[in-house]
Inverse folding.
């Protein structure tokens, strides 16, 4: 019995994953264990804790630098110290998903289904739908947009007219919920797509610095991940002085990080920070308007 057990746990001559010749407990080609056995619940728990809670200190070292040492995490990555920290994209995605999940839980949506309105509009005769597109109150700017689209993009005009009828059948509170739902659904994608713009603004502001676009994108990932973490902290039931301190830290973090990463003077960093905030604020406003517009266009479906 003991011989059978030892034979079952003996290292094979080839890796089960890549078929490379092996001589120890791990494959030199792909790194997989050579001695395999049926997985246990304990192993799954250990893998989960080791990967997500990072018993080796990877997560805590990453968060410590991200939250309390502006720009330090970016500098560590640029110096080649990467294995000891959570990868930038994974860090950003994790914090952004947590933030939007928490904000959705904090502000629930009670949007009632309006299928009768949508169904009646969908089953209206084609001539009636056409009149709905053309005969619109000219006092409404949105209706004027539909009227202008009817010749150059009939399908789009019909879609806008349909959504206008849908929204007109909602109460004010339900319309607010439509906007909220659109924001929660599309804002994470918008924020992710805005990251390249943030990096592009940094590239323009630091022309001649010798840094490549990828380095600016790395910095953008880290500072936006920090912002998500701070906004989650601001959602906590903290006293007024605590929230005030968090807002101060949130405002001071970016210029501090810029100076540490880009090695500029105080005045040069200050005007670049102001220019970056102005440009990115306008970009974010446009992005959020598009998310709300996308939510309105998809409402009721």
């Amino acid at each position: 019995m003991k011989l059978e057990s030892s034979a079952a746990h003996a290292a094979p001559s080839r890796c089960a994953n890549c078929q490379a010749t092996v001589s120890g407990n791990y494959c030199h080609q792909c790194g997989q264990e050579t001695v395999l056995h049926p997985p246990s619940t304990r192993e799954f728990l250990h893998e989960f804790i080791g990967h997500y809670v990072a018993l080796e200190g990877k997560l805590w070292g990453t968060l410590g630098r991200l939250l309390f040492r502006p720009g330090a995490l970016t500098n560590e990555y640029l110096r080649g110290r990467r294995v000891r920290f959570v990868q930038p994209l994974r860090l950003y995605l994790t914090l952004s998903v947590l933030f939007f999940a928490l904000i959705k839980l904090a502000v629930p949506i009670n949007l009632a289904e309006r299928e009768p309105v949508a169904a009646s509009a969908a089953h209206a005769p084609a001539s009636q739908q056409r009149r709905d597109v053309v005969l619109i109150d000219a006092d409404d700017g949105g209706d004027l947009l539909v009227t202008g689209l009817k010749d150059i993009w009939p399908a789009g005009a019909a879609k806008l007219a349909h959504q206008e009828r849908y929204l007109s059948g909602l109460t004010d509170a339900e319309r607010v919920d439509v906007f909220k739902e659109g924001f929660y659904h599309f804002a994470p994608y918008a924020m992710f797509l805005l990251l390249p713009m943030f990096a592009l603004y940094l590239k323009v502001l630091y022309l001649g610095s010798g840094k490549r676009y990828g380095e600016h994108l790395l910095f953008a990932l880290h500072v936006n991940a920090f912002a998500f973490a701070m906004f989650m902290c601001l959602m906590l039931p903290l006293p007024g002085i605590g929230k005030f301190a968090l807002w101060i830290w949130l405002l001071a973090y970016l210029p501090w990080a810029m100076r540490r990463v880009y090695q500029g003077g105080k005045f040069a960093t200050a005007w670049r920070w102001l220019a970056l905030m102005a440009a990115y604020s306008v970009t974010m406003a446009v992005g959020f308007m598009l998310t709300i517009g996308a939510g309105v266009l998809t409402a009721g479906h």
About this structure: Confidence is low (pLDDT under 50) at residues 1-8, 111-142. The chain has 13 helices and no strands. Residues 172-205 form the longest helix (34 residues). The radius of gyration is 27 Å.
